[in-house]
């Protein structure tokens, strides 16, 4: 039985896909396989390798424009999560009652695999990858998709996995209506992307809680008991599944908690207790204890053995660009956290280190409020090296807390400056709190250039 009854959406006719990235091309291939007349439309230019895939599959596409006449005749539209609801074409489609859905919603109709879905403002990628590696190590036939890895739709078309670990963003959730998560995880909710939610925090919170909207009593809902926005969201949103909270501040009978001896205790229905000392985790820092608890709860309800969980949680190496160790040069550790594109992510990064820090900060500022970093910066940061064209907000925010704040002219310049400012035993941390588009293509490009500059020291 599939995750979504196929009666909800048309199963033939014209399928239009807006956006020809990883998810769009994957959806096109699955749609073709299911007998739709598929048309892919991207207002921008389509990357060569995606164009090649569409040509090989014989799928019609356009780039640099939208053929509105053709699109508005669709039976069903799947749109990229990056396209807002407010775009006139999407408004016109909805006015004609043409369903506009997400790739995940479309693909879930065609699989009976178990779906483990992870969302949150921070820690999604780390928790998703740790969970995937743990389930794989436990012998499960598992796929990885969503915001990470290959398109979910493409894997449904071409692979035969028994379960998927899906990293889910709020933008994806906005276009998901009948989708059901067998295991839904909300790690935390902090202000992000509020421009997409009428600048109302409760709209963003409710978007995250769409994760649990169709759960049944056979499903699980895993969430952080210590996260204030999640707890507020629970007053308005409910799951029929089994609630499994994780916490570092309370004791819980079912769920995960950290006891006074800094040992993680995990209890789930009908399973034996799992225990592991926090110092044995390969991912250190308060936020990574939360991530490991969430992954541990998922593994437990999938009935993994305690030994398998311990081995995975004790040896896992983090994903690129997320607190990635680059090198130790002259007694200074260089850490690439380029994926930290918001202030909250930088808070988590700073909280992970006990050594003095030279912090590389800046880029395209999304209206950041740096005040939440003030105490940690005062405590831990020796110097700040500013990246990007507009550095005034960083100088203003931290001039009272840090003696040295300098501007750089390139990533190479920033790394050389940092190496002079750092002392033996320090950490040089790239954790920008900003988008990368002024100097770099994306956060991966920024992280790669940081790594290359470090290796040239």
From TrEMBL:
Q: Ligase among the record's keywords? A: yes
Q: Which keywords, in A-to-Z order, does the entry hold?
A: ATP-binding, Cell cycle, Cell division, Cell shape, Cell wall biogenesis/degradation, Cytoplasm, Ligase, Nucleotide-binding, Peptidoglycan synthesis
Does the keyword field hold Cell wall biogenesis/degradation? yes
Which GO biological-process labels does this protein carry?
A: cell division; cell wall organization; peptidoglycan biosynthetic process; regulation of cell shape
Q: Which reaction does it catalyse?
A: UDP-N-acetyl-alpha-D-muramoyl-L-alanine + D-glutamate + ATP = UDP-N-acetyl-alpha-D-muramoyl-L-alanyl-D-glutamate + ADP + phosphate + H(+)
Give this protein's Gene Ontology molecular function annotations: ATP binding; UDP-N-acetylmuramoylalanine-D-glutamate ligase activity
Residues binding ATP: 120-126
Report domain Mur ligase C-terminal positions: 321-434
User: What is the documented function of this protein?
Assistant: Cell wall formation. Catalyzes the addition of glutamate to the nucleotide precursor UDP-N-acetylmuramoyl-L-alanine (UMA).
Which HAMAP family does this chain map to? MurD
Q: What is the protein's given name?
A: UDP-N-acetylmuramoylalanine--D-glutamate ligase
Q: Give the originating organism.
A: Sphingobacterium siyangense
- Gene this protein is translated from: murD
């Amino acid at each position: 039985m599939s995750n979504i009854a196929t009666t909800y959406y048309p199963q033939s006719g014209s399928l239009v896909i807006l956006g020809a990235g990883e998810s769009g091309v994957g959806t096109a291939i699955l749609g073709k396989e299911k007998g739709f007349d598929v048309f892919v439309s991207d207002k921008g230019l389509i990357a060569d390798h995606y164009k090649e895939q569409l040509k090989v599959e014989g799928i019609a596409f356009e780039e640099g424009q939208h053929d509105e006449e053709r699109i508005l005749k669709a039976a069903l539209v799947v749109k990229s999560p990056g396209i807002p609801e407010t775009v006139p074409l999407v408004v016109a489609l909805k006015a004609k009652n043409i369903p506009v859905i997400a790739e995940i919603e479309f693909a879930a109709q065609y699989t009976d695999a178990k779906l483990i879905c992870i969302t949150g403002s921070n820690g999604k990628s780390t928790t998703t990858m740790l969970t995937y590696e743990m389930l794989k190590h436990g012998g499960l036939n598992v796929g990885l998709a969503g915001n990470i890895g290959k398109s979910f739709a493409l894997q449904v078309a071409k692979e035969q996995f028994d379960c998927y670990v899906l990293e889910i963003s709020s933008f994806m959730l906005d276009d998901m209506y009948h989708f059901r998560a067998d295991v839904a995880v909300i790690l935390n909710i902090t202000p992000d992307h509020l421009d997409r939610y009428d600048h109302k925090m409760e709209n963003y919170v409710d978007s995250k809680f769409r994760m649990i909207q169709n759960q049944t009593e056979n499903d699980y809902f895993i969430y952080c008991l210590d996260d204030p926005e999640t707890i507020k969201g629970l007053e308005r949103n409910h799951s029929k599944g089994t609630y499994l909270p994780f916490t570092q501040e309370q004791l819980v009978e079912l769920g995960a908690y950290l006891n006074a001896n800094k040992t993680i205790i995990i209890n789930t229905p009908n399973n034996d207790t799992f225990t592991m000392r926090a110092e044995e985790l390969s991912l250190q820092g308060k936020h990574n204890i939360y991530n490991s608890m969430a992954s541990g709860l998922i593994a437990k309800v999938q009935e993994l053995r305690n030994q398998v969980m311990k081995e995975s949680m004790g040896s896992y190496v983090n994903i690129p660009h997320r607190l990635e160790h680059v090198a130790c040069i002259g007694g200074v550790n260089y850490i690439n956290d380029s994926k930290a594109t918001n202030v909250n992510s930088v808070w988590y990064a700073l909280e992970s280190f006990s050594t003095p820090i030279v912090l590389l900060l800046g880029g395209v500022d999304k209206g950041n409020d740096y005040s939440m970093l003030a105490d940690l910066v005062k405590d831990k940061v020796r110097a700040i090296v500013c990246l990007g064209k507009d550095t005034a907000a960083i100088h203003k925010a931290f001039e009272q807390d840090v003696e040295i704040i300098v501007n750089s002219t390139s990533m190479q310049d920033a790394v050389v400056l940092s190496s002079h400012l750092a002392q033996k035993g320090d950490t040089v941390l790239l954790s920008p709190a900003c988008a990368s588009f002024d100097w770099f293509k994306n956060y991966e490009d920024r992280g790669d250039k940081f790594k290359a500059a470090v290796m040239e020291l």
